[in-house]
Amino acid sequence: MEDDSRSITVEFDNTVDDFIRFDKYWHTRRRTGKVWLGYGLALASGVLMGQATAGPQLTGRSFGYRILCIGVLVAVWFVFVHGLAPVIARLTMRRAARKFLRTMGRRRIFLDGGGVHETSDATQGTYGWHVVDAVEADKYCIFIFLLGGTGWVIPRRAFRDTASSEAFFTTARRLHAQVAPT
After folding, report:
1. Sequence spans of domains, the chain
2. Would the pTM of this model clear 0.90, i.e. be above it?
3. Which CATH architecture has domain 2-179?
């Protein structure tokens, strides 16, 4: 990794697990609104199903039907979001990432005031900071999200030490904050 006050570069190879981390991070931290929307829709659907099952009169029995329908639909959504969807996502991401990795090769990401510059065996491109949605990180990776949910997952193992990965992350956040609108 090379570094100065205006630019920073890292070279790395992604693995299938890196892409799975990117996808998981995107859905658990960046798209939580859709999960809560699903709970709201499950709740509303449960009320409507309970209404259709129990009839228009509000009695103790019809109230019980409504609660039962709401409970079943919310439970189904919970099992889908927290049980089935992650398994499906991991399987499809593994398959897609294997195909993608065969064509990608080694990557080089160069950051400067103009944006993110990517070079790989298959691609070369520059993305201005105005199309970068966010720069975030967890303990395994640094994520640079473009508008629309794509971007880069830069594994922390690409850096020689923790300080180097933190310097890259800090520089990326600073450059993004200087140019991108808030």
Report:
1. 2-179
2. no
3. Roll (2.30)
